[in-house]
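Dear U.,

For the methods section draft, I wanted the exact inputs and outputs in one place so we can describe them consistently. I've listed the two proteins in the order they'll appear in the manuscript figures. Please don't edit the token lines directly; just add comments below if something needs changing.

First protein:
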Amino acid sequence: MKWERDGVGEGSRITPAHRAARVSWRPSAGPAPGRLGAAGPEAHVTEPLVKLIVMATRGWLLPGLLVSLLCYQVQNGTIVLAQPPTTGPAAATRAQGTGEAKLAAARQALTGSQKDAARARGLLQEIIDQDQATLQAGSLAYVYVYLGYLEDRAGARAAATGWYQKALGAPDSDPGIRQCAEYGLKQPLTWIRHLDGTSAPARPGAPKSRPPAKGYVATDQPPADLVPASTLSAPDQRKNFDFLCQAIDETYADFELKGIDWEEVQPRYRAQLQPGLSADEFYRLLFRLVNELKDAHSWLQNYHVAVPSSAPELTVDLLQGKPFVVAVSAGSEAARLGAKPGSEVLTVDGLPFEKKVEALRPLLRACSTERAFRREACRQLLTGERGTSVAIRLRAPDAREEVLTLRRTGTLTPAAPPACPFELTRQRFVQFAREPSGLGYIRVVSFEGRGEVADEFDRALEALRAAPGLILDIRNNRGGFGPQHMVGRFLTKPTLCAIGYRKNGPGHHDLRRQDDLLDPTGPWQYTCPVVLLVNDVTGSAADLFACYLRSAKRVLTVGTTTHGNLAGVAAYAVLPCGLVVRISNGYVCDAQGKPIEGTGNEPDIAVDPTVADFLAGKDPVLEKAVKVLNEKLGREQSGS
């Protein structure tokens, strides 16, 4: 059960800032997909009077608060206090101080369906730049959440999560706005009750959303329960195909960046709309069409092309561009037949590696760079239906060649990261230790944990506070959510860390610039030398982490060039048939203006592990980082 407050009257001792937010207390139910509120969808209560008593006894309401001021109503089985937060010109006049007046005006601009997002954004940014001292206690968190809400509505998740992190660090914030920020860190926050109306989100089990009659493109997440039509006539297929082609043409941001001739691509795929094409065959055609964008952040959102995931019980990975066996399960058929780590895979079912990669291309989702796609294709090299067999020609480390026929009895296993030569303190997302020479070492396995990653990183950094130098390892980190808080731990002043471009019109060159200025975060900043380890799996939020730190000139990078998938923001094409297609409508450059999408973050010192390194159990990237960092510290100590 949950009690939800949606604003209270002037008789309460809750501040005006508290009145501006929807606050929810919920015991367990996670947020449902689709429409979003500041703290998740409503749960259902059956004892409203008990909840009123609980609020009073816990000090949330004055003991003598008049019931007439509460003015509650029931929506979808949820008790909701109906008095809305105070907005409008009168609210701005009553607000105390310039900052509060601007906050009230920004709230007014964001209220209702016809929002003036540009005005609200300008006012909120002015508050941050000029008027923080005139805000009431707790109001700064509202400024940050509203900015995150604006970014989420524009599809800019990386920027949005940065604001929510700031909101959680703002002083004196009330529980409601903190829950807004926490929710925004879990998934896009595009609906807030006091800004978007008082209708409660649909209850679980409500009828599914119907596909639109004509289709549309939006920057908000479409309803999560849309399902593509299971049958489509030939005219309907042409109609949906043409709609998607136009949506991509007007929405996608990176045609020129990637040298894509969309006028050439469209007719090539339109010619494949043959009579008798099933709905599944049509969706797979659209899957390949979207893959032409070579964009890891553009995909069919509610239709998935099935790829078999069974494989023999061995793992294959790329080493210097070639596929090698890197692990063989003990006691497996592969082990019994003599497969050994370090063996090069020459052919798969008679196909050389390069031809097998091309055979996989229509089945796998696109990557933003060819090097990243080749690694993913290598990971999928031996997959197929469970119980089938695959013939593999191997060249063992002693140069002996043999063909092994192996049954696909296991599941696809990703290659493990290089073994760390020293003991690590392991958390869910962040691992850390003191390297034997005294340097600090932090490995961020993933950025998927939102606030949890930042918390674990702070604990690791605190444990290594006295380390004279630090190694950050984000190899094999495929991304997740915004790393702004972690970057701020290495900054001593506001710093331009990236430049974003977002589509603002239908033309291929209709883009607007947005600078990504990051502030210091945390109770203290780490100012000693830092080396960052990267490879071609490092992507998305991990690519952004590398971009930020490189732009801030806070790290020396060692390893290989990152994936290079950093589109930044997205739009969603909802086709008349109900198919949802995510389309990147922006991209991110470093502070010098070099795009990361399609190119990647190049290392300052290139180190590409060899087969010999693998067989010897060496990690040459880490070894190079330790050597370079200790040499730098030695020069600093000697004054040279």
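Second protein (the one for the lower panel):
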Amino acid sequence: MKKILQLAVLILACSVSLHAQQKQSLTASATSCTSTGTTCLIYGIDQTMGAAVFTVGSNSGGNTLQFEASGDNAATWVALNVTPSNSTTAVTSTTGTGTWQANVAGYTQVRIRCSTFVSGSAVVSILTSIASARSSGGGTTIVNGAGSNPLGASLNIKAFPYSAVGDGIFLVDGVTNAGNNQLTSATATFRAGIVGYVITCYKLPQQIGAAAWAAGQTTVATFVNSSTITYTGTNAGVLTGLYCTITNTADTAAGAGIAQAFSDAKTTFNGATATVSYQNPPSKVYIPKGLFGFAATLNNLITTGNEGCVGIEGDAPGESVLIPTFTFTNTAIGNGGWAIQDRCSGVYLRNFTIEQASNPITFGSASEAIAVWGSPAFVQNVQVFDSCYTSGGPIYGIAVPAGSDIVIEHPKVVTQGSCGGNTGGLSWSGSEGDIYSPFLSNTNQNFACVNSVAGNNGAGIRTWGGVIDEGSVSSWTNCVDFWSIGTTWTGGANCVSIDATSIVWFFGGYCGTFATNTGSGPTVASGGQMYATGMHIRGQNAANYCWNAVAAGGIFDEGGNSCTLAGGATTYKAGSFPLVFPLQINATTQLGGRQTVSGTAPSGCSITGNGTSTCALATGSTDAAGTITITAAGTTTAVGLVSITYNQTTGTNQTTCNANYSNNGQTGTWATGAIPAIFVTNTTSAMSFNINNAGTNLTATSTYGVNYQCYGQ
């Protein structure tokens, strides 16, 4: 029995995959036809198909088209009642354009036949779905079992009554001229069926309130060839590099498209969670493969923000694409999320792309394309492309203003490098959760963490892998307990910036410049803390560096970090405090059998009270340990004061140092009874000590060694 069920599921899955749209250009008439050609389009119906959508994309000649069906494998054809997307009145023929839907359960074939040909061509298409459309030709709407909010149903925006088509075009190389209303593109492939579709173009960079091309939102007038169309309305003049969107009017028709499906899917009841009453859960909206226009915010905020979220799922990012229209209405002002406002319980967004196409949505205030407020929340494979906003901001692709139990997998936000405005990638505020494999690139603020203080509850935020790409400095402002695991952080002047109230942990990954761009590693303000383990840090070109801690204890080196320098960059920014190797109070260390000290040598060494003797630091000496070589000269004595100035401030209170005489590698020999060095100065910036050779003057031109070790307190 189990095998039979598995086989049935497999057969059903295979049959569903065959429900592909078929399209044909009709250029002649016929009284009958048995196969697809210039006079008709025939679509075979099988037992899994319940509904069909008939679309006439263009019909400038006013040709008469018949909608017909057969129940005996094309032996007999009868007229088929079909219902327009914006009406409940059924028809059997048309001389215009539009989209119609019909119940085809039980038929064997359906067709669109040209019965009277006048001129030009009629571009027609047929698409089927599993769901039965209605109980009769012009009757009550039924979508997967209900007309308003079916329990647990997934509402397909291409299915009746939503009837979106999703056959839009997006291009980035539009060219217009002053001589005629032609638009050309070297990359787009135009087709006759887009005549009558909505078209809008923008020249980058764009700003809020700025007009689009002179034609505004208009329509495609004629199809010239695959690279050229004409548009109605005002001539746009001579323009190049236009970002243009062409979308089907059926996508945004009243009572149709994703807007209506989203509205039907809502619930007024609480989302499912522990110790809360709930019922009638919301539906999920399904966006099939296609490029769909949408004209208003998909706003999940109903009353309290605790209602169940309407899920949105596409086939894949880059396959299921939403593009805002020129007349887009933002209903989420004040709450964020001009495209999708998910202030609700149980956020679910998956496998789709929002292409803003530089359309300057009226944000009203700083906002973002997608706002994720809910708890819990799951966002996977969601992309936001090509926003450009030059009036305030930044405007982020995705923002998490609040919530907990938030998981975001592979978010992708990329904008144009040429945008002069304040665009952003991902913003995170006051929330707890995980970000897996993000890709955020070419915005003015690729990543920002603001006011997320886990502190004593250990919740925090984590990034796992991914690339925070070039274009900006990722920042942390009042964020405590943020963990980055294996993430690549590249930026502008710095890869990351940590403010005075943030504590950030980095485990592996990269922090530095993108390729050979000029820039530096991390910078940490006084009071902030960065803990680094196993990181690759890079500074590129003069006046840049690997590390900058504005105050002592700003950057903690927990081992395994490397610093790569190129083009004159330095390990530290001038004035930076050095890295700190942290140990807990009273910790027991296990340093092993060998230790090697490396670092920058002290900045100065001098000796007084011993003729004209001088001192120098041996190769490899650092602030922490090294060897001083005294070269006796002039009228020498048995004593002297040796002073060392540290290269970097050592400790916060003072230093504790010791020194001992050494004859190793020297030409002079200390007396057997030489009195041990006595320290006079131990500050955080310098040390000094007296030498005493027990009454025996140092021998002029001879060298004498002193080994030293210092610890900061």
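Candidate sentences for the figure legend, describing the second protein: The longest strand covers residues 474-485. The first helix runs from residue 2 to 17.

Thanks,
Y.
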